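Example 9 (inverse folding). The structure is encoded as follows.
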């Protein structure tokens, strides 16, 4: 139940709202229709430009993030792939490319070690940003932490070693 005071307040608010609405109608009538239309068009243009600028800024930020991820990946990948203990043969580099980066090196058995490393680095540019980030973070972890590196080196010598499993186990230890 509404009390007498709250009913009176609601009536006052309603009357003030009606007065405001009537003033707005008078203000609109006092203007030329073209003037109102051009004002609305101008406001739409401002809103559209603001939205467009925001999208451009988001796109630039995303590109900077991708470039940062790529730089981290390239730096750590070259260090890790050059490790002869971890990758004693070209086959090991080719296996890493397929399993970790989803990059297949055609005729890897006829290529030099450095050519294969270069190909993986160049082809990684086309990898998905999420995959780049994941592999880059893990390669950084491998190259920075000697325990992780030693653990992977030990497991890489075992038969049935999988880079996908190594990445999965490292990513769970990172989180």
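The amino acid assigned to each position is listed next.
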């Amino acid at each position: 139940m509404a009390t007498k005071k709250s009913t009176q307040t609601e009536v006052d608010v309603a009357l003030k709202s009606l007065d405001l609405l009537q003033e707005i109608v008078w203000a609109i009538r006092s203007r030329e229709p073209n003037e109102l239309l051009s004002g609305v068009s101008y406001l739409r243009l401002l809103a559209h430009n603001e939205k467009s600028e925001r999208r451009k800024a988001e796109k630039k930020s995303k590109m900077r993030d991708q470039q940062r991820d790529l730089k981290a990946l390239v730096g750590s990948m070259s260090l890790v792939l050059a490790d002869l203990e971890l990758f004693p043969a070209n086959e090991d580099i080719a296996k890493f490319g397929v399993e970790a980066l989803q990059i297949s090196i055609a005729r890897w058995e006829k290529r030099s070690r450095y050519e294969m490393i270069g190909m993986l680095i160049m082809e990684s540019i086309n990898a998905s940003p999420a995959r780049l980030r994941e592999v880059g973070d893990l390669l950084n972890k491998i190259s920075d932490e000697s325990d992780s590196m030693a653990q992977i080196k030990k497991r890489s010598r075992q038969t049935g070693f999988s880079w996908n499993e190594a990445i999965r186990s490292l990513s769970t230890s990172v989180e």
